[in-house]
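Task card 7
Instruction: Convert sequence to structure tokens.
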Amino acid sequence: MDFDVVVIGGGSAGYAAASAAQSAGAKVAIVDKGPLGGLCILRGCMPTKTILRSSDILALMRRAKEFGLSAQNPSADLAAINDRKNKLIAEFASYRTEQLNDPRFTLIEEQASFISPHELKVGDKSITAKNFIIATGSSIAEFPVPGLAESGYLTSDHVLELRQVPESMIVLGAGPVAVELAQFFCRIGTRTTLIQRSDHILSKGDEDLARPVEAKFREEGMEVFTATKLLRVEQSGENRSVFFTHEGKENAATAETILQALGRKPNVEGLNLSSAGVGMNRGRIEVDSEMRTNVPHIYAVGDVNGQHEIVHIAIEQGEIAAHNATQEDVRRFDARLKTSVTFTDPPVASVGLSEKECKAKNIPRLSASYPFNDHGKSMCLGETHGHVKLLCAPDSGEIIGAHIVGPEAGEMIHQMITLMHYKGTVRDLVKIPHYHPTLSEILTYPAEELATQLKKKI
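Output:
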């Protein structure tokens, strides 16, 4: 074999896998057709969080009077916002390109296509390997809404390159990408309408986490429609109209442009997986907890397996696959601490089980929550939307889920990740000192309530 491990894809998961395999002594090649950098750096996490920072500051500036300050007619310059973003992303991408070009690896910038379970076509050549790790990520999926393709639309890729603020926009979808970008454009001056098919936005999580975000959206002037069915899209001149059912009636929303943010799909095109015998399920590469496909020496990590489309989990999966491809002992992915953050205002962060998951799997739990509008530090900050919620096992009090919708949720959730990593209980959380006044101390209030419930059960 030419290599011990060939990693297909040089994004976050792919680079993590290649680095871990090489550190274990393997001869490693990375195949990536480019552009180098991966989704997170080029079109995902980093560029979106960069532009969101601008709209967050603008929203605060507009609240200046509330804090006894004066700010005269603050406005957004989308070209300048994207110039800042482009500069930062160029730096991030340059660093990742340096990492991929490290002489520890053989970097092949070509499309990869399987010829057989152990052979890969790369350009006009072929290479062989003992193990393969597929880390090709995901791309924007198309959805069959009548008239949508003909009327034209933007995607999350396109909006990252806009230089002028659209006058109006309809956002289709309400997952993390959709809601973050919807609020961004609403805040920089675009008349924004969000249309969601499910009963609430961020539908994979609990409803009570979504409602404070919906409320904030409406306060900021966004139109939000949930529990809809998309019917068709029509174009008239420069405008586009989306027709949908809502509360038993047909409605229409009209705007200059449409942002299609209904979802993503695994990047498997061109891989010729059938020649390797790799099994698929609903467009995703099926893997077990060891990240193995049905072909034991071929692994799939990150977005391409569709399990958890989150960067830190993709990196963990890449490292697990690399370990299992190079070591005798076996590592497995454990979803107990799966974490997600949506960077809206208020942001939403979760770790572990949701109430929705507990109900679906008949997992017993106790739950308690506490609102930010009754918490001193959040009132001082003027950030009173949302609440914190804890789930614990009814026998031991071990925390099995923690959820925050409110200020600094993405930072605060790490306290709960740490506690749950060590299988901490609500009693442990109550005992841990929390500085006053801080946002983090709000987590002790539902913990105290749950600890009291546990005492009553004994």
